[in-house]
Design a protein that fits this description.
The complex is a heterodimer of chains A (about 270) and B (about 375).
Chain A: H1 21-34, E1 42-46, E2 61-64, H2 70-80, E3 85-91, H3 92-98, H4 100-109, E4 114-119, H5 154-161, E5 165-170, H6 174-186, E6 191-196, H7 200-206, H8 212-221, E7 223-225, H9 226-229, H10 234-237, E8 241-248, H11 255-266
Parallel strand pairs in A: 1-2, 1-3, 3-4, 4-6, 5-6, 7-8
Antiparallel strand pairs in A: 5-8
Helix pairs in contact in A: 1-6, 3-4, 4-5
Chain B: E1 3-8, H1 9-19, E2 22-27, H2 34-46, E3 50-53, H3 57-69, E4 73-78, H4 80-96, E5 100-106, H5 123-128, E6 137-139, H6 144-161, E7 164-170, H7 171-174, E8 177-182, E9 225-227, H8 241-256, H9 259-262, E10 265-268, E11 275-279, H10 283-296, E12 301-306, E13 308-310, H11 314-321, E14 326-331, H12 338-342, E15 351-355, H13 364-375
Helix pairs in contact in B: 1-2, 1-6, 3-4, 10-13
Classes of the chains: A alpha/beta (about 270), B alpha/beta (about 375).
The structure holds thiamine diphosphate (TPP) and iron/sulfur cluster.
Chain lengths: ~270, ~375
């Protein structure tokens, strides 16, 4: 039961009405529950931001560190105990902006962790400033005249860096989201899921979508599947959210499996 | 008896860490500390441990902490620019109360400074480098043997007090080659962190009401939250005012109330000394040489070597201040530790700094000259 994994006494969640974070947290916890991961063997490792509050509500182990570093903390955990299930939950500020360096290197190393990046297109917690995923022309607290940068295609970055499972979903399609997060959890190696999520209170309010349904509709209207995107031009895909699986391969050892071979060759005994 | 070996300070640190039970290293190479990374990458997998070269020092510090919460003794090594990058997550180890050891092989600063030249410019940074009130343990070696022996002490303190410990070496000692005894396991004392014993349901990772709470391990029967944000005794976020006050005070007091146990000093010829040199790290070697030369010339010189820089060994400094005619504090900086001496000077005796920042060590003659000026 999901209540085995979520702390009911902490509910209702502190997130704003219409925020996507609760849906994503539920999907993560449902998938953990479905896999019967022992709470003792599971760590939810969060960054700092609205999304970073996710671990407040879990009954598993958790680690709440610094902004942007969840993947680096998770790396140490997984290497110290390869049997742990380590799930890093981050915002787009955490995941690709201040913490992008850790993301690409963990992908390249094929570190065996699940990395979930909640992309709400801005910095929710600090009041709606632009992040590395904010689309061009968007209004944020620090781009009131319209944003002059393009946002990252984060899945493209992670795939190029060598991530072996890379997918994007949205909170508007929970069935797909559950499936993507589940596949990420079953994957041996670096598994990355980006989730497009509404932040009506900040991004929405600044971009004429302060009502949650309006923001959700906007996400829905701009979502295209991987299959459909294949037939679209670069210009047509601008500011679209392409969802589906971009990479899913098992042709490379994860980091510790490769490293363990060296330990074994040297006859080093793993100590507890 | 151990094995006699001839090695560099940086290499001896790796051996000391492994002897202390460390099995995880995460770091980013930087002169003059890189030999710690290199030797760790060779030695750790031989003993079943893991070396990983992270993308930067921010990630290195994070990985250390992650590994330590999973039960591995973990360490890293860096220098000037790297210790600055580690500062934020050093605070996570402090606030999260996660043991680990950070080696800082000081080089000339500020900024990128002179990568290959010695300095002692990070004394205050190691004390106050991460934001907010806190206390920290900093040890300073003066020989290759110290690099081995004191490294074990550093891990022991980290484990015992659930805290990061900084091993503050400098280029002089890091690159010094001399004989060292790699002691056998039965000759050394290794402290492992206290683990919880009771019912997992009753475990409170930050409940220090009965003394420092034991630290469980992710993956054991104990489920817990490590939280670098202000937290309650279970690790849940808490903005409660009383709780905030208690935590900040706890983080200082858990170290400051054990100054006596943590303090390591070495006394040389203090009994009859009229002129006392208070020194630390590689500069100790020049101080001892100056003392010898001065004694040969009839000057009653003694040396107090401070090994535990932080928390400052106040009682030991006060003892010296009560008997000396004058005190000399040679430092390879503009005078960072001298304030610890000055603030313990009720008799108002002369406290004379000997400072140098030209990338050369302080030579014995320079110390002796100053003493002679005062003695004459
Ligand atoms: C080093 C550092 N810089 C800045 C901050 C302030 N800060 C806290 S959360 C945040 C952004 C959060 O955005 P994101 O990661 O996208 O998460 P969200 O709140 O949108 O869920 C920032 C800039 C911080 N905590 N640490
Ligand atoms: S500010 Fe945005 S991201 Fe944060 S809780 Fe509110 S809606 Fe969610």
């Amino acid at each position: 039961m999901i209540s085995d994994y979520l702390l009911e006494e902490k509910l209702p969640l502190s997130w704003c009405a219409g925020c996507g974070n609760g849906i994503i947290l539920q999907s993560i916890m449902r998938n953990i529950d479905a896999r019967h991961w022992r709470k003792e063997d599971t760590v939810i490792c969060t960054g700092i931001g609205c999304s970073g509050k996710a671990d407040d509500y879990t009954r598993t182990n958790s680690f709440h560190g610094t902004h942007g570093r969840a993947i680096a903390f998770s790396t140490g955990m997984k290497l110290a105990n390869p049997n742990l299930h380590v799930v890093a939950v981050m915002g787009d500020g955490d995941g690709i902006t201040i913490g992008g360096n850790h993301l690409i290197h963990a992908a390249r190393r094929n570190m065996d962790i699940v990395a979930i990046m909640i992309n709400n297109l801005n910095y929710g917690m600090t009041g709606g400033q632009y992040s590395g995923t904010t689309p061009r022309d968007s209004i944020t607290k620090t781009s009131v005249y319209g944003h002059v940068e393009d946002g990252f295609d984060v899945c493209g970055v992670v795939k190029a860096a060598g991530g072996t499972f890379v997918a994007r979903g949205t909170v508007m399609d929970v069935v797909q989201l559950n499936s993507l997060i589940g596949k990420a959890m079953d994957h041996k190696g670096f598994a990355f899921v980006e989730v497009i999520s509404p932040c009506p209170a900040q991004f929405g309010r600044n971009n004429k979508m302060s009502a949650a349904p309006a923001m959700m509709q906007w996400i829905k209207d701009n979502t295209v599947s991987v299959a459909k995107a294949a037939g679209m031009s670069r210009a047509e895909l601008k500011k679209k959210f392409v969802t589906g699986i971009f990479e899913d391969r098992n042709d490379q050892d994860d980091y510790y499996t490769a490293y363990k071979k060296i330990i074994d060759r040297l006859g080093g005994e793993e100590n507890e | 008896m151990g094995k006699f070996r001839f090695m560099q300070g940086n290499e001896a640190m790796t051996e000391g860490a492994i002897a202390a039970g460390a099995r995880f290293y995460a770091g980013y190479p930087i002169t003059p500390s890189s030999e710690v990374a290199e030797t760790s990458s060779v030695r750790l997998p031989q003993v079943g441990g893991t070396y990983i070269q992270m993308e930067d020092e921010i990630g290195s510090m994070a990985a250390l902490i992650g590994a330590s919460v999973c039960g591995k003794k973990a360490y890293t090594a860096t220098s000037g620019p790297g210790i600055s990058l580690m500062s934020e997550n050093l605070g996570v180890a402090m606030m999260g109360e996660v043991p680990c050891v950070v080696i800082d092989v000081q080089r000339s600063g500020p900024s990128t400074g002179l990568a290959t030249k010695p300095a002692q410019g990070d004394v205050m940074q190691t004390r106050w480098g991460t934001q907010g009130d806190h206390s920290i343990i900093v040890l300073s070696p003066s020989s290759v043997q110290d690099c081995f022996d004191l490294m074990i002490t550093a891990f022991n303190y980290a484990e015992q007090y659930r805290t990061p410990v900084i091993f503050l070496s400098e280029e002089i000692i890091g690159h010094l080659r001399e004989q060292v005894i790699i002691r056998d396991p039965e000759e050394i004392t290794v402290v492992d962190r206290a683990r919880p014993a009771g019912d997992p349901k009753d475990y409170r990772v930050y409940d220090h009401s009965q003394g420092l709470a034991p630290l469980a391990t992710f993956g054991s029967d104990y489920i817990f939250k490590i939280n670098a944000t202000m937290h309650d005794e279970k690790g849940n976020p808490s903005a409660n005012q009383e709780n905030c006050e208690r935590i900040v005070r706890h983080l200082s007091e858990k170290i400051e109330s054990h100054v006596k146990d943590i303090s390591i000093v070495r006394r040389y010829n203090l009994e009859d000394a009229e002129y006392i040199i208070i020194t630390y790290g590689g500069t100790t070697r020049s101080a001892l040489s100056a003392m010898q030369k001065g004694r040969d010339a009839g000057l009653k010189i003694g040396v107090l070597q401070i090994v535990t820089l932080w928390p400052a060994p106040g009682a030991e400094i006060e003892e010296v201040m009560s008997s000396a005619n004058a005190v000399f504090v040679p430092e390879l900086n503009l005078g960072q530790y001298i304030s610890e001496v000055q603030k313990r000077n009720p008799r108002n005796i002369p406290v004379i700094g000997i400072n140098k920042t030209n990338s050369k060590p302080i030579f014995p003659a320079e110390i002796l000259e100053k003493i002679k000026e005062v003695a004459d």
